[in-house]
Amino acid sequence: VATVPARMGSERLPGKSMRLFDGKPMLWHLVSRLRQCRLLDDLTIATPDSLE
Fold first, then answer.
1. In sequence order, what are the beta bridge partners of 4?
2. pLDDT of 51 over the 70 cut
3. Which of the residues 9, 10, 15, 22 has an alpha carbon 20 to 30 A from that of 49?
């Protein structure tokens, strides 16, 4: 199992996980790569329950 923290309230680069890189959000790139990992059975994205 992999857990990816996806915060939007970073001090140095707010909204980093949703910033576009090569036309897609950075979080998309990370999840895409993790889904290729044969050692992982499950993937969880942890987000805050309120706006930061």
1. 45
2. no
3. 22
pLDDT in tens, 12-49: 888 888 999 999 999 999 999 999 999 999 999 998 88
Residue partners of 38: CB distance under 8 A and separation at least 6: none
pTM value is 0.77
Q: Contact 4/34 with Cβ under 8 angstroms?
A: yes
In a domain, 13, yes or no: yes
The reply to whether 20 falls in a domain is yes
- Which domain range does residue 17 map to? 2-46
